[in-house]
Specification:
The protein is α+β, with helices and mostly antiparallel strands. The chain has 2 domains: 4-251, P-loop containing nucleotide triphosphate hydrolases (Rossmann fold), CATH 3.40.50; 270-388, Nucleic acid-binding proteins (OB fold (Dihydrolipoamide Acetyltransferase, E2P), Beta Barrel), CATH 2.40.50. It contains 10 helices and 20 strands. The protein has helices at residues 48-56, 98-108, 114-126, 138-154, 169-182, 199-216, 227-233, 251-256, 261-266, 297-307; strands at 4-13, 22-32, 37-41, 63-68, 71-72, 83-86, 187-191, 219-224, 236-241, 244-249, 273-279, 285-287, 290-292, 313-318, 323-326, 333-342, 347-353, 359-364, 375-380, 386-388. The strands form 4 sheets. The protein has a 6-stranded mixed beta sheet with strand order 6-7-8-3-9-10, with helices on both faces. A 5-stranded antiparallel beta sheet has the order 13-12-11-14-20. Strand 12 (285-287) and strand 13 form a beta hairpin. The protein is elongated. The two termini are 23 Å apart. The structure holds adenosine-5'-diphosphate (ADP) and magnesium ion. Magnesium ion is lined by residues 48-49, 191. Magnesium ion (MG) binds next to helix 1.
């Protein structure tokens, strides 16, 4: 087990056929704690796989260093790094049984003399013969034990003699995971391992991977573009966009206090509603003809912004749960229902504010009778406001520790699956 550290890592792919070089990562700093499940999330093409491949040793950085534990692994070959990777495409050997796929990394781990190789080969060739005719190899016996232990852990015992083509997609991914676990690496790397599975299987497998990681306690970097996976699986989430780390924090921190507009829109479903508001002094915001007085940490941030002479134009963010259907009053925002999605346990309403023509989304209980085209009134939770400046950065909260020295992560217990 080990912590993982990227230090000022940049990666630029060289130009190909006259095209410009591709700058994928820029001076990225990221520390992952020992035993942590870190989810790396971001839109397609933002550099997630590149980051993972740099850690696995499948690519080398243009500059910067990568550490696993206290070892700098930047110059080491993949096999020397003590990491194991699971790919989206499973990457199983089609001609090998499940057992041999799981044991593949173990059999390659150390170089052997030709005589040892012959002994191991004889062991495998004779292993189904009566005991007296078997050729014993201690190394092969250890490997077989390890394969059985992994198969027990993942409940793959019944599949050990099958070929990959005789497995379902979910089973194949489970075997690929088994191959990674068998080597007992210091770090697991998983690159969108669930994206080839159907939705129902994905939900179940997600919970199993979380449970397994908690049981083994192995540091894990898990890449996904799916924000639901990001929210539900990791101790912390790192959001990547355009080769830069946008925010690193627990799922709830990112959901509640996104550090910029990108994170606000990327994390959470539906995305945070954004409204152009004016900062009008006295800790107030104005939207059209209505004034709002935010509460909680945002109130302090706004007062500090106003006393510091910050700009007037802000983006005001509100999560769907911070708007609710309410009676018509001076305060509440009149809006027209433009779309309604009944989800059984709740409704997701899309409404157009009558003043300013902005669209917002909110949740309502299934009993609340509303029809498309109807005029409704929306009440804003004063503690729900999140404010972003003209550059899209969240207004700093006064209580926030300032400066770049982030505290050591305290890993919360993962929820029981
Ligand atoms: P993600 O996994 O987040 O979708 P990648 O890390 O695969 O993103 O790719 C990031 C960017 O780098 C993309 O624009 C991709 O086209 C480019 N890229 C990836 N691999 C190579 C390569 N070997 N050569 C050149 N460009 C590459
Ligand atoms: Mg990728």
């Amino acid at each position: 087990m080990a912590e993982v550290r990227f230090q000022q890592v940049s990666k630029t792919y060289p130009p190909r056929r006259g095209s410009a070089p591709v700058e994928v990562l820029r001076q990225l700093d990221l520390s992952i704690a020992d035993g942590e499940f870190l989810v790396l999330v971001g839109p397609s093409g933002c550099g997630k796989s590149t980051l993972l491949r740099l850690l696995a040793g499948l690519e080398s950085p243009s500059s910067g260093e990568v550490f696993v534990g206290d070892r700098c692994v930047t110059g080491l070959r993949p096999a020397e790094r003590d990491v194991a990777m699971v790919f989206q495409s499973y990457a199983l050997y089609p001609h090998l049984s499940v057992a041999d796929n799981i044991g593949f990394g173990l059999r390659r781990q150390r170089s052997r003399t030709p005589l040892q190789q012959l002994g191991d080969g004889l062991h495998r060739a004779t292993r189904r013969l009566p005991r007296a005719l078997r050729f014993p190899s201690a190394r092969e016996e250890r490997i077989e034990q390890r394969i059985r232990a992994v198969a027990d852990t993942l409940e793959l015992g019944a599949l050990l003699d099958r070929l990959p083509k005789e497995l379902s997609g979910g089973q194949k991914q489970w075997v690929a995971l088994g191959r990674a676990i068998a080597r007992q690496p210091a770090v697991f790397l998983m690159d969108e391992p669930l994206s080839n599975l159907d939705a129902k299987l994905r939900t179940g497998t997600r919970a199993q991977i979380v449970e397994l990681q908690r049981r083994l306690g192995t540091t894990t970097v898990y890449v996904t573009h799916d924000q639901v996976e990001a929210m539900t699986m990791g101790h912390r989430i790192a959001v990547l966009n355009r080769g830069r780390l946008q925010q690193l924090g627990t799922p709830i921190e990112l959901y509640q206090w996104p550090s910029n507009l990108f994170v606000a829109q990327f994390i959470g479903s539906p995305p945070m509603n954004l409204l152009p508001v004016l900062s009008v002094g006295g800790g107030q915001l104005q939207l059209g003809s209505k004034r709002f007085l935010p509460e909680g940490p945002t109130a302090d941030a706004l007062l500090q912004w106003q006393s510091g002479g910050g700009g007037e134009q802000l983006s005001g963010g509100l999560r769907a749960e911070h708007l609710k259907l309410a009676p018509a009053t001076n305060r509440n925002l009149p809006a027209e229902v433009s779309h309604r999605e009944a989800l059984g346990n709740e409704q997701l309403l899309t409404c157009r504010l009558l003043e300013g023509d902005h669209l917002v989304q909110l949740r309502a209980t299934p009993e609340q009778a509303v029809a498309v085209g109807q005029t409704v009134h929306l009440e804003v939770d004063p503690a729900g406001w999140r404010l972003f400046d003209g550059a899209g950065e969240a207004l700093p909260r006064p209580a926030e520790p300032l400066g770049p020295s982030a505290p050591e992560p305290v890993l919360p217990e993962l929820p029981a699956s």
